[in-house]
Amino acid sequence: MNSLQSGSGDVSQNVRDVAETLLEQFPQDVALLTGISLPASGSERAALLDLVILTATAVVVGIDGQRQTAASMPPRQAGQRLLRLQQEEELDPALPVYVFWLGDPPADAAGDVPALPDADRIQRYVLRASAQEAMPRPQTAATLADCLLRTDGERQARGPHTPPLRRVLKAIADPGLLEHIMPIRLGAGDRPLLPADVNRHLREAMLDKQNWLEDVNYGKIVPNVFVVEVGEDNYRRNYAPIAPQVLQQWRDRLLTALNVANSRHGRRTYRFGGSVRLEIRPAADLGQHEVRVRSRIEPDAEAAPAPAAPCLEAVDGRRRWPLREDLIVIGRSSKSDIYLDDPQVQEHRLVSSRHAHLRRKAGRYLLYDGSPDGKASLNGTYVNDREVHDQGYELQDGDLIVLAAVNPAHPRPDTPGVAALRFRRKC
Q: Is the pLDDT of residue 8 over 90?
């Protein structure tokens, strides 16, 4: 059963129409909230969330790009507010938050947040976001939905009565049905379309803004499953005899294209949604000059959260960061993989923007001070009261990590503005 409830904030007719359409067409149960007003908190002003979509594994926030009011807030800031709200409510583990512009963004807005013009695009985006986390957390989603409605300023319920949200949310299933199909492309001249001609189309499918998801830490999750379809005669002559080699070459080129895109950004902006998998197959409706590329984000089955997964944990136990990548940067900058957004860390600035980094090697986690390019932190990195030097430190279960020290001889985890983390082999 899907649910739609309204907060006290005024939203456009377009937002209402989109919400009603989504309510009818979602194949899985979701909770949709419109016009949720978040009160001012500390130095932050009040904010209006035009559309919030909650599933059992994710929360997706849409901001109306055509609304210009004092309560307007860019999608990223709105997503960060929702993450902090989950922390304040001690929702553990918190639901991942994804954001988008609903319709065209403002003319002065950055162009790297997805702009989704209609309910169909939004539905596909929500399903892809939900598929990133295989472990359903309906209780967390229901609690967050109730919290948003409770904190909504002077809430006035509108529309028909809806059942309690706690009965609504269930797991998103079968993400494999979700696909983006690139338009058919034509080859040149009389020769058929060959494997080398497909390279560009695969790269376009991977980096197309409409295909990837954006998390609150600015990361772009791109498709990792690609199905290439060509005409039957072309497939039989030019693809089937060398299919294994072609698939491996395409995979290598996708990995290279991803690395090149990240290099241009100066950080690991893009990452695959799972292991890269490709398939080539014939299609009766395609000629020898045509190709169709289907792509989707499909997490690996074994990538679901498991008790044995290692993580870094805040010393107060309220936050955890799973360690899933081979290189993980930790710092005060929002561009870090582990973004330390604690207000004291941000205010005192003892922790560097890219303070330390982790490297995974054969199941071992090595901690290094400074950024991966060799720039040392300003105030040092310490494990169990010992400073981490150039050779790094192999973390053991329970090790206490302190980022920054006022007195290097006695690094203290309780010093205001430092970050204290504990390495857990099993989380």
A: no
